[in-house]
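Example 4.3 (complexes with small molecules)
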Amino acid sequence: MVVERVKGGVGAAIPHDSGHLHVTGEAIYTDDIAEARGTLYAAIGMSERAHARLKSVDLTKVRAAPGVVAVITAKDIPGKNDYGPVIADDPIFATALVQYHGQSLFAVAARTMEQARRAARLAVIEYEDLKPNLTAEAALRDQSFVLPTERLVRGNPRAAIASAPHRLSGKIRIGGQDQFYLEGMIAYALPKEDGTMHVYSSTQHPGEVQHQVAHALDVAAKDVVVECRRMGGGFGGKESQPGLFACVAALLAHKTRRPVKLRVDRDDDMMITGKRHDFITEYEAGFDDDGRILGVDFVLAGRCGYSADLSGSINDRAMLHSDNCYYLENVSILSFRCKTNTVSNTAFRGFGGPQGMVGIEAVIDDIALYLGRDPLAVRKVNFYGVDDRNITHYGQTIVDNVIHEIVADLEQSANYHARREQIRAFNRTSPHLKRGIALTPVKFGISFTATHLNQAGCLLHIYTDGTLLLNHGGTEMGQGLFVKVAQVVAEELQVDIDRIRITASDTSKVPNASPTAASSGSDMNGKAAQDAARKLKARLTEFASTHFAVAPETIVFRANEVRAGDKSLSFNELVKLAYFARVSLSATGFYRTPKIGYDRKTWSGMPFYYFCYGAAVSEVIVDALTGENRLLRVDILHDVGKSLNPAIDMGQIEGGFIQGVGWLTTEELCWNDKGKLMTHAPSTYKIPVASDVPEEFNARIYESGINAEDSIFRSKAVGEPPLMLAISTLHAIRDAIASTADHALSPRLDAPATPEAILFSIEELAARRAKAGVRAEPVLEASS
Ligand code: MTE
Ligand code: HPA
Ligand code: MOS
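Answer. The structure with MTE bound is encoded below.
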């Protein structure tokens, strides 16, 4: 007998549900929504100082400009002048004090977008300049922090370092990164009857925007609906900060009683919104002859910008990922959350995890160079064990460690050792072009570290024609969440996926949803949808059992059909019968992640439900005279458990990797000494493009992957972890640089490793080598 399968069930490599709309330009983003009669357009008036007192703000010319209908400042806010997601330190409009260049001061609504933007530039503002703190160093010097300093200690790192056979110390600067979502920040607010407001917002967190708008308007949550069908990318940038734009649009809509759209242009978006936190990481490590780390001490300084935003959780995650795949028996991590007069840095794919991991990988690389060993050997010596050496520095026992298998497989398939030899041979005869190779591993913890966020809801309807409408609290930003959740429903109810209409995230359908973040979208919404689908299936089963007078156990749903004893009918027929028998065909589903919970005060417990693993090998070629470089070949093996959709997952793996390469090699944010961001457009800020994809790019899903925990169909989250595979590229560049000094010294290389940074690193290495006067003797100079 041939067992039919439903179309688009779990595990099917089907395209993104909106793929055909994305490529034809028919997908409706917020700016494409048909505009209501009388729509006005808004623009934000921005601060031109990084740190100043506002002496006077004269908006006369703004109000008199052509087309202007309304101008608002903090005085026009009926409710709270704040949109801070955790702490109330993010004013919608600055009042007495401005804290960064680009900060919002007032807003204009005009008949056209052009008129609004022109009018916003006509303000006459008098500032009394204050000294801006622009860097983490400056903040450290002044002890200027957005949140208290944190320390996590296990064992006795000081003693372990002091008594270790070898010691080294170092420092790495890790740059920030703009999310560079293709669709910029946008909100469209429509006033409805009786003081209610409907807001279309490009946001990863509609529920939070709902509250931010309600607070600003001084109305209740029930009076605000926030809707988002899709974002043109979020990458963390739309986790907390869309609230500003939604509040401004809603305030102007409230004031004018007309629909208001606020779409900021790219330059303004980059000046106003937060980015990945740049870090300064200092380390000291003690280790043995094999390179095994006996004790390590980290000091992390994350630049948070002017306000707290999500910086607490982000810096926490950096601390929690300072181990990556390595067992650190004696470790101290001191974490400073630096307050500066720059944009408020926020979530970005990996959420602090990548910065933590870059730190420990730098330690490993320095140790390898010091000992003259293959960095991969040093990595392996330090891997977490499976049955021993398997407790993290925060006390969570790792029960799903597959990094040994993944690395062993990749080492073979990427031909790592032979290529390393070939590269060494090539470099010996090539004076200026130098190749480098590196294999780095990834372990990434899945769950929001703020435990309460690990919950999700779903709403599922079956209509009498046997088609379904699916809604859940997750948002779609291109990552393929909607199709994966629909696959779960198709699988559970055994109906083809094309019967399921996937609908916009909407606070009036599923309440109190968490942000779609921490890579947990499909884990949580998939489970919530499964819960809803199972409820409906149970009702249909119970009905069929009564209707056909058969035992419930004999009822089987299979590929759009239902068998009840020896009867067989279509799903549609059953639904119709159930409707006439007055069976409810709508259900909600709910999920909360089990097991997790940890105490942030003692840094102990189980913050993560499980871990994702992967590894990558990068090979680069560097021109030692110019610093120019190319990524020649990349091999990836990544664990997604049992994939819900291998096509979508592969897109996340490849895309995440390339985005990580951008972070670590080309994307450089520059502020001038007055605190103005100078790289606020693609002309000066270089994200990877198609031609930056390596010629040979072999990405594979780890076929024997399976989630050790009871996740949705044993799949694993995939959104963020692959970004960190790009650390291999940074280390391949380091390897190429190290070859210019016969691998005798450890290069100083900060991220991003732009051509200039590479050239400086090579020159600094040459100077240090000349000074040390060594040839093959490994020397690593203490830098602190
Ligand atoms: N993929 C695309 N195409 N666009 C995005 O904005 N965001 C990433 C990742 N992949 C993003 C993406 C981030 S930061 C996260 S947390 C996850 O997707 C969120 O979605 P998920 O939880 O459904 O994986
Ligand atoms: N990850 C991503 N987003 C978050 C988290 C997290 O751990 N906590 C709060 N927002
Ligand atoms: Mo992703 S940084 O958790 O939105």
